[in-house]
Amino acid sequence: MKKPKKSPKSRFSKSVIFSLVFLVLGFILSYSYSLSEAGKKSGEYTGGAFFEEEERYRGELISQQERNKALREEIQEKQAAVQEFEETFSGGENLSARLAEEAEALRRFTGAMPVEGEGLKVTLQDGEYDAESVNPNDYIVHESHVFQVINELYISGAQAISVNGQRIHGNSYIVCTGPVITVDGTQYPAPFTIEAIGKPDVLESSMELAGGVMDQLVNDNIIVTLDPGKKIEMPALLTES
């Protein structure tokens, strides 16, 4: 059995259809190309170009973040240096103030400057005795008694001390000669007044400690009188030029 032959009209229809398909396809390709070119000219990016631009911005952002981190570290280092300098400067001021206080205290101790202020006055008197029945040396004030009082007052924070108005300094000497004592070459009879500039309550408390200096003096038959809160003035020591 023979196959029927296609008519010329059928072949013509297929040709027309293929022509239309290729025409539409060509138009689409042409239009897409035109859009691509137009996008490039107008500065718009698509596809690979867009991702490349995104990567570039990401790289710049990372670089800026690293730079910011380095700047923060540098700022922290500068702040630490400034803080160290401030602490050093403050320490220098404190050191200067402390040295000034120590220098003034030393001048007070050596008697190089006049001083005044509240303090404590300690009076030592010979005890009452019967010259015919006892040894009189057991009832008079000796240099050891004066030294006991002076040392206790210095330990308790006295800034300056005088005996019968004469300033005591680091090289002072006290010698007992019978009923009188000699302070740096000057003789003084009893009673002996020892004045100390400092905190009156502290100085008095130190003298009155149980078993302390005052109890020892009383046991040695010495009459002791404490007079705290007095305003005391002491001139500077005269030095040879």
TrEMBL record:
InterPro entries of this UniProt entry? DUF881 (IPR010273)
Q: Which Gene3D superfamilies match?
A: Protein of unknown function DUF881
Give the residues annotated as coiled coil.
54-88
Which keywords does UniProt give here? Coiled coil
Similarity section: Belongs to the UPF0749 family.
Task: Write the protein's name.
Answer: DUF881 domain-containing protein
